[in-house]
Amino acid sequence: MTMETVIKVLSVNISVKKGTIKKAVENINLTETGVENDAHSGPWNRMVSLLGAESIEKFGAESDREFIYGEFAENISTRGIKLYETKPLDKFVNETVELEVTQIGKKCHGSNCQIFQEVGNCVMPKEGIFARVIKQGTMRAGDELTYKPRVIKTKVITLSDRAFKGIYKDKSGKQIEQVVNGFWDKNGRLSSIDYALIPDNEDDLRVEVKKAVDEGFDFVFTSGGTGIGPRDITPDVVKPMFDKEIPGIMDLIRMKYGTEKPTALISRSVAGLIGQTLVYCLPGSTKAVDEYMGEIMKTVEHSLYMIHRLDLH
What we know:
Helix content: 25-40%
Number of strands: 17
Structural class: alpha+beta
Distance between the termini: 22 Å
CATH architecture of the largest domain: 3-Layer(aba) Sandwich
Radius of gyration: 24 Å
CATH class of the largest domain: Alpha Beta
C-alpha cells in the first residue's frame, strides 16, 4: 500500500486464552503491551492483531462457511484496505490511538488452531497483520483509523570541489538516488530523497550529516572523499560520529572487488549508525557506486527493522 487511506473498525475482540477465538466486546483499551486483558498482550512484536473483512469474506467463500469477527483470533476487524499489503513500520492512527505495523502474517499453529481443525486451512497466518501500540487509548467498533504508509527518508551527500564549482556534473550522487528510488519502489515502499552537493570540506559535511540525523532520515549515503588524497576527508569526519560502526559490509565489498582490481582496496569507505540513521560513505565514481550499492541494498531493509526493534528473521 502506498497511499493514506481511512479504514473502518468493524469489531474489537478479546480472548483470555491463546489458541481460542476472540469474542467481540464494546471497547478495548490499548496499553503499552497491547490489548488490556487479552491473552496475546505482552512486550513483543505481536501485541495487537488485525484482520480485514476483505480477507475474512474471501476465506469464507472459499470455505463455504460464514465466519464472525474475532473467530480468527484477531483483536481488531477492519474494512477498507487489504491489510496484508501493508509493511512493517506503517501506522494506523486517529485522535485517540496510534498503532505501528510490526509483522505481516505468522507461522500457522496447525492442529492448535480451531479454524484449521475444522476446515484444514486458516487465513490469519497469511493475511493477518500485527502491530504495537505507540499511543495508548480506547478503541471501539465504528471508529475510523487512517492508514499512513511509512516514507523511507534518504539523504544523499556528494563531496566534490570540482562538481561544487560547476566544472562537471555530479553523476555518482544521482546514481545513488536512482538505485535507492528503484529499490524502494520495487519493494512497494514510499521513499523521499534529499540531495546535497558540497565541497570537500569537513565542517560542511559534519553539518549535513548532523542535520539528516536530527531530521530523522533513515539513511545517509555520501559519495566521494574515501581515498587517500589530501582532500579525502569523508571517513575522518563521519566515523567519529558513529554510535556503532558496521565494518562487515565495506570489508566484503573491498575484498570482493579488490581481488580483481587491487586499487579498490585503497578505499576507506565506512558504514555505521548514528542514532537511528544508517550512514554509508561510498567512493565517488559511478562504477564504485554500482558495486557498493549492489551489496548494501541487500541489507538495508533488515537493518532498518533491527534499528526499530523488529525481529523479523
